[in-house]
Predict the 3D structure of the following.
Amino acid sequence: MKKMIGVGLIGMGVVGSGVVKTIIEKSDALNSHVGLPLNLTGVAVRDISKQRSFDISSEILVNDPEKIVNDDSVNIVVELIGGENPALELILAAVRNGKHVVTANKEVISKHGAEIFSLARQNNVRVLFEASVGGGIPIISPLMRDLVSNDISSIKAIINGTTNYILTRMAHEAADYSVVLSDAQKLGYAETDPTNDVEGIDAAYKLSILSTLAFRASIKDTDIYTEGITKLTDKDFQYAKELGYSIKLLAIATQTNSDVLGRVHPALIPQDQMLAKVDDVLNAVEIETDLTQKVLFHGPGAGSMPTSSAVIADIVNIARSIAGDTDLLDPVRLSEDVKVAPISTLSTKYYFRIEVIDEPGVLGRIATVFGDCGISISSFIQKELEEKASDAELVIMTHEATESSVDRAVVGLSELGVVNRIGNVIRVVE
């Protein structure tokens, strides 16, 4: 019978520091929850001599993460270095060595989840990753446990705090994208290179994880249609408000029969919907099922302590199984019957913002293009452009149309001599 449970950490950055601090400062409470002491056996860091903001014994610090993975006294390896490599190899090595793994690594789970889950099953260990999506919001565990009797039909989520902060500022202050991005970087919400956030890549990683669990299929980040927020302007927010909508970067996955369509892109949402009210750096995930209907998970999506909370929860979950010598839940089993649908199959409403020459007959010519593509116009707004009185801006809302027909319409509009440019095309989610 075990006398303690060894925990080894790889990486002590923002999140790792929060985890170590919590284990040290709340050891009595955690040990009580587990039934055995949690022993912080080793922590792999880049610089052992670096000064820490909390007390930690230098004796457990190492600069080689493989020492953690190969340490016989470590029962649970916690990977918090992020990125694809060497994190993936360290996780796989830990699993091969019969060690349980806790990770916050969305990229690794998104790209290699199926491989990791299969290997974990072979070695009778668990790999938990609650912190990979939504920071402190419990969403992974509910999908793996609490909602297993439900047939999930859709996921709608705001799962990138950086972009949500930017869009909130642009909506409420009519602020310019570049100005707000700069502010987000100064506040630490956005990286020096914000590409993963503002181009939707980070959200696609997270959506692929949620989709994999919800639909029990291997959905990779490359299966997710991805579009960022860089084309949005203050005009889009102005017109959206006039029309009764908010603009959010949404991560959406839907299942129809055996097909799953995953997409990340800016979307117009009716202002009375709950997701439209999620502002600043907060995240939210809405799950729709046959038994519970709609369930909303809402809270801080990043930060040291919220993310640390999710990591600690996974550690305690595994540690309880070890302490009780109970059978471990089988790692995620994935079906090969579920197929990925392309974005071209999407059918939804659309918002068009088009700059045109202001002369008689323009709207008719534009309507003809839409009609030829099988798209019905539900409403339009015409605005005179302040910078050029001879031109106008049309905001067109469509009835439900297919993505492929919208693509054809964009080509057709671009070829019209009266169209100066297509300012934006945004999908509507109702």
